[in-house]
Amino acid sequence: MTAAIPFSHSSPPALPGDVARAPRELMTRTGMPHDVERWCLVEIRLGGRWRPALLTAWRRPPASPDRIAHVRWAPDGPGPGEEPWAWLAYDKATIRRLPEPAAPIPPTNAVVVPPEMAGAPAPDDSGRCWRLAWIRTGDRWHCALLTEQRRPAPTMPWIVSAR
Predict the structure, then answer these.
(1) Sign of torsion, CA 111 114 115 121?
(2) What is the pLDDT of residues 74-94, one digit of tens each?
(3) Beta strands 34-46 and 49-60, pairing class
(4) What's the CA gap between 32 and 61, in Å, rounded?
(5) Residue 46: Cβ within 10 Å count
(6) What SS3 state is found at 161?
(7) Domain ranges for the chain
(8) SS3 call for 45
(9) Closest CA to 51 of 96, 90, 9
(10) What is the C-alpha separation between 154 and 127, in angstroms, rounded?
(11) For the whole prediction, is pTM greater than 0.70?
């Protein structure tokens, strides 16, 4: 019965200082939770070390002062229980935002490539990827998830699909 509930998967034993899964009591409270989408790159303390992740949403369960973070890893893990995402109890000691990169000199912005210039995806899906990255647009750094990459020619720059 509980196998159908995503946050009930068994997890590897946590090491001291590791992030904790969101408690079932917070995730199953009656009432509407307050969710705020926030796509940002973070580090999660897991398995005794810091691992990059993409924080996609904050949740404040009904009648609770606690915050819960929804994070994603690459499709092949290394999330708790090896799933690609998890709801985790927020604690600033175990979830921290990655700092913006030092700007190149001079800082340059990403260029939006029209679809007709980007070309079609590779038929064998060889350009598929799942990478967390910083992208600079409008003279500011933004967190991004890269889902595809291709290089139209060896002398041309890479083109990526970023969310």
Answers:
(1) negative
(2) 554 555 555 678 889 888 899
(3) antiparallel
(4) 7
(5) 24
(6) strand
(7) 2-97, 115-162
(8) strand
(9) 96
(10) 15
(11) no
Tokens of 93: 């000691």
DSSP string for 52-87? EEEEEEEEE-TT-S--EEEEE-BTTB-SGGG-SEEE
Summarised one tens digit per residue, pLDDT across range 112-147 is 888 777 777 777 777 777 777 888 888 888 888 888
Phi/psi for 145 (5° steps) reads -115, 115
48, 52, 44: which is closest to 21 by C-alpha? 44
Given a contact cutoff of 8 angstroms between Cβ atoms, the answer to whether 38 and 53 are in contact is no
For 96, the token pair is 């921290």
| One-letter amino acid of 1 | M
Cβ 116 vs Cβ 46: under 8 Å:
no
Task: Determine the 3-state secondary structure of 23 from DSSP.
Answer: coil
Omega before residue 78 within 30° of 0, cis:
yes
SS3 24: helix
Provide the residue count of the chain. 163
How far is residue 144's CA from residue 160's CA, in Å, rounded to a whole number?
11
Contact 69, 88 (CB under 8 A): yes
